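queue> pop job 88
queue> type: inverse folding (structure -> sequence)
queue> payload:
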């Protein structure tokens, strides 16, 4: 987990993990929090093993994630946004279940089945476990990309891939890149059924309503990340993991709408 201020959000996330029925250790990289976050982690009130590292500035989240997973000593690593809350004790067990097979390399809670040639998602192919109405079939479904809100994979896979590609900048694009890098190894990506809530935006803590200049910069960063991804994985795009029948049906529906 990477944090920067937002202690209330972080505490809500960790409190939701209290009932988790799978043992785990927590690794936190603090990107220069200026609130009470450092003190709270010094007095950490939860029983899980904790590794806490603090950076002096709010540097790249991607660099912080690489810093964090390298501090982990477990066989599996779960990268989790601090603005999520898990609703069922079995959430981690369900993420780990597909990874029992070497055919699966990455699991998560939100993803997309089809990615266009230009790197953008086909929104109608999104599947997720959001509590408001999960769309993923039980127990899991194949996807082309697992969203970064929650990513679970073997530590050895991250090592073999050299970690997260920090060339995407501060934050955007790493989840598409990691998903496709895992698929390059011949393994699948899946989204599991494990209901959760996501507040959104807590990782970057940017107030776009007050700073339209930051919103414009963020949109530019998103476009640049998508373009970089499309260039890097042009040999795999477009990509669609749906069965042929579903693809044909989708094509016919779109054609009939013109």
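queue> result:
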């Amino acid at each position: 987990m990477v944090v920067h201020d937002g202690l209330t959000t972080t505490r809500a996330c960790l409190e939701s993990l209290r009932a988790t029925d799978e043992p785990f250790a927590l690794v936190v990289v603090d990107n220069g929090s200026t609130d009470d976050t450092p003190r709270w982690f010094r007095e950490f009130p939860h029983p899980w093993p904790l590794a806490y590292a603090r950076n002096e500035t709010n540097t790249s989240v991607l660099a912080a994630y690489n810093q964090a997973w390298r501090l982990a000593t477990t066989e599996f690593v779960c990268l989790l946004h601090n603005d999520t809350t898990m609703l069922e004790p079995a959430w981690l067990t369900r993420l780990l279940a597909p990874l029992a097979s070497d055919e699966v390399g990455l699991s998560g809670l939100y993803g997309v089945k089809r990615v266009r040639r230009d790197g953008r998602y086909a929104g109608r192919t999104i599947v997720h476990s959001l509590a408001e109405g999960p769309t993923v079939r039980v127990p899991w479904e194949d996807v082309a990309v697992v969203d970064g809100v929650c990513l679970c994979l073997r530590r050895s896979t991250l090592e073999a891939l050299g970690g997260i590609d920090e060339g995407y900048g501060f934050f955007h694009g790493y989840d598409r890149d990691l998903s496709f890098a895992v698929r390059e190894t011949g393994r699948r990506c899946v989204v599991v059924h494990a209901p959760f809530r996501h507040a959104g935006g807590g990782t970057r803590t940017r107030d776009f309503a007050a700073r339209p200049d930051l919103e414009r910069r963020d949109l530019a960063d998103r476009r640049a990340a998508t373009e970089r991804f499309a260039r890097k994985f042009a040999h795999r795009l477009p990509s669609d993991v749906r069965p042929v029948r579903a693809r044909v049906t989708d094509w016919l529906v779109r054609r009939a709408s013109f």
